[in-house]
Amino acid sequence: MANWASTSYCIEGSKENLKKIFKAIDGFMTEKRKPKDEKANKGWEGNVLEELGASEEQMKTYYLRGFIQTYELDNNVLRISAEEAWGVTDFRKVLEILMPELIIYYCVEETGCEIYQTNDINGKHFKYNFLVDCCVKGEYQYEEFETKEQTMKFVANLLEKEEVTEEEVEDWNDEHQNDDDYINIHEFEYAE
To answer: Can you list the alpha helix ranges (DSSP code H) found in the chain?
Structure first.
């Protein structure tokens, strides 16, 4: 069984290409279009790539284990949210082969294997660099931050302190390992 990663894409390009991709996604998601493989899920990313002209070899060569959850075309940016197995898939790579002028930004979160990555190094679409997911006193929270200072200030507030170190957070987690409380701090890595 795969660990599912939440991947968000922001795709920039010509209106024509973005509409072509949107139309392909929408056709499958609204079931106006049927997948070539009748066993394929309507949200499978491979359906879209086949519709856009991906070759049989590309479909076999590239890792395509992802399913589109939501999609919208907004201000010349196509935004897609997908659930992908183990981390970001090759969906974007095949799209870039089919439409080389596209600029595809992504951000992926997979908690099981601690994968937190983005290729948006300048924060154009994904402005956060840190993520805190926690449960303190039975209250669950999930917050994103641009800086480490903002992150640690948030955590200090959770613990009702002026400031806190990462070591103190680790100690706090150790003290609470037998209850439901935890504080996880994740830093996004930059990937190609």
So the answer is: 15-29, 45-51, 56-61, 91-98, 148-158, 166-175
* DSSP label at residue 3: P
Contact predicate 132/113, CB 8 Å: no
Q: What is the DSSP string of 20-43?
A: HHHHHHHHHHTTSS--SSTTS-TT
Burial (CB count <10 Å: 0-12, 13-18, 19+), residue 151:
buried
> pTM of the predicted model, to two decimals?
0.90
Token pair in block for residue 9: 């894409």
| Cα-Cα end-to-end distance for the chain | 27
Q: Kindly state the DSSP code that residue 54 receives in the 8-state scheme.
A: -
67-75 long-range Cβ contacts below 8 angstroms, 24+ apart: 67/41, 67/43, 68/25, 68/29, 68/43, 68/44, 69/43, 71/22, 71/25, 71/26, 71/29, 73/18, 73/19, 73/22
Do the beta carbons of residue 7 and residue 81 sit within 8 Å? Answer: yes
The two three-digit tokens of residue 129, written as one number: 């660099």
For 68-100, what is each residue's pLDDT tens digit?
A: 999 999 989 999 999 999 899 999 999 999 999
Cα(106)–Cα(82) distance, integer angstroms:
11
Show the tokens assigned to 68.
Answer: 């589109």
Six-digit token string for 104:
């595809």
